[in-house]
Amino acid sequence: MKHLLTIFSLCILGLTGCGNGNSGSNNSNSSAADTTPGETVEAFAYAMQAGDTDKLKALCPDFEANLSADEIQALAATLASNARANGGIASITIDKEDVDGDTATVTATLTNGNGLSGTETFDLNKTDGKWLIDMTDSFDQLPQDEPEGAATE
Asked: pLDDT (tens digit, 9 = 90+) per residue, 5-54?
């Protein structure tokens, strides 16, 4: 699996241990076209805690563009396991939401049921009327796999 642990780290940086509790609103009944960038970030956190691969892919197309189906499934299972270990999401606070046309930056603080909290900044793009998490820069920073049979020094 190519760099799965690095991707895992990128997903939970600042959102360490998204839990499996159902505190707060997860906007699961809202259409993505009706949501704000902040609500998309909240839905992304709840999808991580649930290990919901379909929702993760829907909210962050970069997963499907950069990971195999098996890698996404393994990532989702790891996120859900980590979530259970940290007591669930006690609260998500949208600290700042800056929208500029079809791009947005959201800073959110997540507090877990075990009292740990972290703050993370997310980039989003509006595509077909829906706010989506943009992790392109994160994936671009990953080391590239060497082609099979490549000579190493």
From this structure: 445 444 554 344 333 333 333 444 445 567 899 999 999 999 988 999 99
In a domain, 149, yes or no: no
Token code pair at residue 128: 């077909």
Query: What pairing do the DSSP bridges indicate for beta strands 89-100 and 130-133?
Result: unpaired
The CATH code of the domain that includes 47 is 3.10.450.50
Number of domains making up the chain: 1
Domain coverage including residue 113: 4-140
What residues contact residue 107 under an 8 Å CB cut-off, 6+ apart? 94, 95, 96, 97, 119, 120, 121, 122
Token pair listed for 55: 């929702």
Q: Tally helices (H) and strands (E) across the chain.
A: 6, 4
